[in-house]
Amino acid sequence: MAQYDFDLFTIGAGSGGVRASRMSAFFGAKVAVAEELYLGGTCVNVGCIPKKLLVYASHYGDDFADAAGFGWSAERPRFDWAKLIANKNKEIHRLNGIYGKILGDAGVKIIEGHAEVVDPHTVKVAGKEFTARYILVAVGSWPLVPKIPGAEYAITSNEAFYLTSLPERVIIVGGGYIGVEFAGIFHGLGARTTQLYRGPLFLRGFDNDIRSTLAEEMVKRGVDLRFKTDIKKIVKANGTLVATLTDGSVLEAEQILYATGRGSKTPDLGLEKAGVKLKYNGAVIVDDYSKSSVDSIYAIGDCTDRMMLTPVAIAEGMAVAKTLFNDKPTRPSYENVPTAIFSIPNCGTVGLTEQQARQQNHKVDIYRTAFRPLRHRLTGRDERTMMKLVVDRTTDRVLGCHMVGPESGEIVQGLAVALNCGATKAQFDATIGIHPTAAEEFVTMRTKLPPRDLD
Ligand SMILES: Cc1cc2nc3c(=O)[nH]c(=O)nc-3n(C[C@H](O)[C@H](O)[C@H](O)COP(=O)(O)OP(=O)(O)OC[C@H]3O[C@@H](n4cnc5c(N)ncnc54)[C@H](O)[C@@H]3O)c2cc1C
Fold first, then answer.
1. Rounded to the nearest whole angstrom, what is the distance from the C-alpha of residue 1 to the centroid of ligand 1?
2. Which of 34, 67, 249, 404 sits most deeply, having the most CB atoms within 10 A of its CB?
3. Ligand 1, atom 8: nearest CA belongs to which residue?
4. CA-302 nearest atom, ligand 1
5. On the CB side of 177, how many CA atoms lie within 13 Å of its CA?
6. pTM
7. Region 242-260: what's the mean pLDDT?
8. Percent helix, strand and coil across the chain, each rounded to 5?
């Protein structure tokens, strides 16, 4: 008789948990996964996928307007929020089914309900206990809303995906990528949009040229961006939300969306009782192989607060499956992780920012270009694309690529391969461009910016 019910018990069927579970089963393990809300987790249900669908929707306003420059004319099109949300929900439902099928086909047992760790080898779901040789915590994260008076009137990204109507006016609080993306979505769909951030410039941690270029572009488009301010209190009057800001101004809106960070979904999980050490913010502390302070308990994805991105959670899940059930101890790599911000316009980035490169004592050369995309020569739209390379002057290696402009994410994905191969600026220069594209600028930038003060 086997000593345990399962070789692996995964808590959370999100991006990381699904990959770890099905690959462990593929390597021969007997696996169960508990899920309390929705198969596919945040990414599929209230994250990347529905977000990207809404971003697609928000671009059409511009596309209809821009079409005039190319000779098209039509009556002003109407937008139907309810239809968009219904269609989005249908697609999410389809994806939930696919995730169920993927797990089922792999032989993973799906257990519905809230799971709790009882001890290093036992998990309880809906009053029933299961034993496992290993437990994998893949519970993800949840939006955090500061405790200000009236915070109960605000929504988070979770609710934004299910609003019954498009707000006429919306305030977005927070300067991370989720806030910026929702500002683009709501503004693009026609809501009067204000975005607040308490710091001097949003998107902390991204390259400064991305941050300032995107801010300029958003302001040009009509988003009311306000930095160095925050909401002090919210009251509701006659169905309208009235926000008093720290700078004394007062704003009214139908919806206020907080995108002010996410916390690990580790409360009520019994982890500390089982001996698992957590960080001050509730994130599970893990080693390079995603093992917690308890030998039989591993943790991956958002709940470990390493890099809150779907492909990273998936890579961590894959590494755990190989480590535990394929005799290949595997450490995920966090180097040159590319990422996009699906703002309008998009941003794409990989490698070191100029600021990080300097902090790491690289002597850097900076190549940067800003131009009006060809398409907008006819549309008349005042939008500029920015591209930037951060190059190590000593080794000639390209350390970072940064872009603001249409399809940045699509373009930077390919550059991430080049950076992982250690590409030099000379190799970028030797690469023939695809003409006419914006992407070709990445291989045709020849003029260095004059050395900056910091050098
Ligand atoms: C609005 C938004 C947009 C995003 N956009 C992008 C993007 O464009 N690109 C990108 O790479 N990333 C994006 N992300 C981040 C991405 O969604 C997460 O990094 C990713 O989903 C993390 O995967 P995970 O497996 O750690 O957790 P999750 O996908 O959150 O899965 C965790 C699962 O565990 C379940 N669970 C939690 N506790 C329990 C319990 N006790 N018992 C049973 N089940 C439990 C949850 O219900 C959930 O299904 C976005 C996130 C948000 C919120």
1. 36
2. 404
3. 48
4. 26
5. 19
6. 0.96
7. 97
8. 35, 25, 40
